[in-house]
Structure formats: structure tokens, C-alpha cells
Design goal:
Helix content: 55-70%
Number of helices: 7
Largest sheet: none
Oligomer: single chain
Order of helices and strands: HHHHHHH
Strand content: under 5%
Number of strands: 0
């Protein structure tokens, strides 16, 4: 993953057309302080130490029993059912309004348009669309 970040630093000057004017790429690197290898080596060592700290903190959290995500947050707080705990009881199915069932039947079987059904039942077209969508999701044919 860290090599992706390094490629961004290498390719960004070419995409942004840096350096401006008649300066060479080596002069540009000298201006931003990357011509010597000392800063580069320090940056690589700093990145490696950050990675080691991240890996150690994740290992400590895992040993403690909490699953840890990529950025160190506890996955249990985000996804409590990750370890097979009991899921919440499913909601009881809602009763279907007979009018909604009739609207869905007219739309699917008799091929009435949304506009015709909205005018017929004196409701908005958005409401008719929502009724038909809900019936489809419920699996009512």
C-alpha cells in the first residue's frame, strides 16, 4: 500500500506539469528538498515505524478480544453481529392495505399507468410509485 503513495509523489509533478518554466526536474527536486537521499531515507524510516506501531496496536487489540479494522477502530462497535451474536428479532410483516393491493394489481395486471391510478385514487404519482415499489419488494405478485 505504501508504494501507491510513493508513486503519487513521483507522478504528481508530471501530472501537475511541475516544475514551471525552464527548470529541470532535478532542480525541482532540489527546491523541495528531495535531491539528497537523507530526507528520503528518513521518510521511509518514519513510514516503517508508523506501520509497526499500527500493526502492534492492532495485535494488542486483537489479543484483548476486539476485532480491529484497517484504521484501528473497533469493528465490534461498527458491526456488532460480526462474531455471531444474536441478531435482533425480525419485524412482523406489516399488513397490506387493500387499496394498495388493488393499485398494484391494476398497475401490473391491467397495465394502468401511474398517472391514471393517481387520478383514479386521488393520490400523488409519487405515492402510487412508492406503493408499487413496496409491493414488488414484498414479493406480492
Amino acid at each position: 500500500m505504501s508504494y501507491h503513495i510513493l508513486t503519487v509523489f513521483i507522478l504528481a509533478p508530471f501530472v501537475l506539469r511541475l516544475p514551471k518554466g525552464k527548470r529541470t526536474f532535478r532542480q525541482y527536486l532540489d527546491d523541495i528538498g528531495l535531491s539528497r537521499m537523507q530526507p528520503f531515507i528518513r521518510l521511509v524510516l518514519f513510514a516503517l515505524s508508523c506501520y509497526v506501531i499500527l500493526a502492534l496496536s492492532q495485535a494488542a487489540a486483537k489479543r484483548r478480544g476486539a476485532a480491529v479494522g484497517l484504521w484501528g477502530e473497533a469493528v465490534d462497535a461498527v458491526q456488532p453481529n460480526l462474531h455471531g451474536e444474536q441478531r435482533a428479532a425480525p419485524r412482523p410483516p406489516r399488513l397490506v392495505n387493500p387499496r394498495d393491493l388493488e393499485i398494484f394489481r391494476l398497475h401490473t395486471v391491467e397495465k394502468k399507468t401511474i398517472r391514471e391510478l393517481a387520478n383514479r385514487y386521488d393520490i400523488s404519482m409519487k405515492r402510487v410509485w412508492g406503493i408499487c415499489t413496496r409491493m414488488r419488494k414484498c414479493g406480492i405478485n
